[in-house]
Request: fold
Amino acid sequence: MAGIYKQIDNNSGSAQTITVITKGSGVSGNIKKILIANENTSNAVDITVDLHDGTNTFTIIKEVEIPVKTSLVLSDNISFDSNAFSLRITTSGTTPLITVIIK
Reply:
């Protein structure tokens, strides 16, 4: 899989859910690694990563806090069938600014 890069800048101060890989989009769910970096210089961010089939949500990680200027790397059992599921990331906290890199 070619890398996917997204930056999420949420100035609303409330939770925001971003679909990183859309179900049936043709982008492979054959993932080896997800890196989520907190780019905010003053606030931690809580991250939830889930798979969504359009009706049901299956949580991979739930409300994990990423401290300021720190990254979280997921690398174990994260591949999925992208014809059946979307990969989503939800941020919460005060003005989260994160970078997501998927390989």
In short: The chain has a mean pLDDT of 87. The chain has no helices and eight strands. The CA atoms of residues 23 and 86 lie 4 Å apart. The longest strand covers residues 57-66.
